[in-house]
Design a protein that fits this description.
12 helices, CRO Repressor, alpha+beta, 4 domains, about 270 residues, elongated, 4-stranded antiparallel β-sheet
Length: about 270
């Protein structure tokens, strides 16, 4: 029993030291080759602890060897773009200009349910908000929204504080107080803007996913297959089997994408 205790302390200390030397990264940030080395180190450390008949050195030497291999691979990928591409891979565009890249999804073995789940976890319930979705090398998804790209190119507008007591004034009076006529228009329309934006957003409902009807969505929204086909016909979308995704967005507008809509641009 005492031997097992001593082995456990030694191997635990060794693994902690090796993990510190490998660098400070969370599990979700590990590259594939780093993740494999981490799993192998944990297995190698467990064997001598479970079987006291095995010499302790048979667990220590492979762990140190893996640390040496990891150090060499890290230096290679830091200095060589080719090695970095082989060891880490490249980011993959899953959504391109608002269109789902089914070829990339299939290659990465990701289905539409998983993609939509990742969108919701990131706080995006409406696919119309997404301009680009990129699968990073560590398996995480990053997003560029249409609102962020639009805000970067738009000029700032005057900030107007809305008040329920705001009284319309003439242009001359407003200019005399340092406000432009455009600002005054903003002030007079505050009430209308506030009332129009007060309605809460709707939860997007997916009716067609990967060419199949979502019956649960039909039941919850009290719709039927005829309604879906009517919407597709109205937008000249084609048959249900030809649709990747059909849904209503946060404003209740019908949105769809066909399988043949995505065209990969030349790089």
């Amino acid at each position: 029993m005492f031997i097992v205790l001593i082995r456990t302390i030694i191997l635990y200390s060794l693994v902690i030291l090796v993990m510190r030397l490998m660098g400070k990264r969370q599990i979700g940030e590990l590259q594939p080759y780093e993740f494999v080395i981490t799993i192998m180190i944990s297995d190698l450390a467990a064997l001598p602890m479970q079987d006291t008949r095995l010499p302790l050195i048979l667990g220590i030497i492979p762990i140190i060897t893996l640390l040496f291999i990891k150090t060499i691979l890290t230096q290679l990928q830091l200095k060589s773009q080719l090695a970095r591409k082989i060891l880490e891979g490249e980011p993959v565009i899953l959504v391109h200009k608002g269109k789902i890249n089914m070829k990339a999804l299939s290659k990465q073995q990701i289905n539409l349910d998983e993609l939509m789940e990742e969108l919701r976890l990131a706080g995006y319930f409406d696919l119309n908000e997404i301009e680009y979705a990129i699968l990073e090398n560590n398996g995480q998804l990053s997003f560029l929204t249409s609102s962020s790209s639009a805000s970067s190119s738009s000029s700032p507008s005057p900030i107007v504080k809305c008040s329920s007591n705001t009284q319309p004034t003439s242009n001359s009076a407003s200019e005399g107080n340092g406000f432009s006529s455009d600002t005054q228009k903003h002030k007079s329309s505050c009430k209308n803007n506030k009332s129009s934006s007060s309605s809460p957003p709707r939860l997007p409902i997916i009716y067609i996913l990967d060419g199949h009807i979502n019956n649960n969505s039909l039941t919850s929204s009290r719709k039927n297959k005829a309604w879906i086909q009517h919407e597709l016909d109205k937008h000249k979308a084609g048959k249900i089997e030809e649709i990747i995704l059909a849904m209503t967005d946060t404003e209740g507008k019908f949105f769809f994408q066909r399988y043949d809509e995505y065209i990969e641009e030349d790089k």
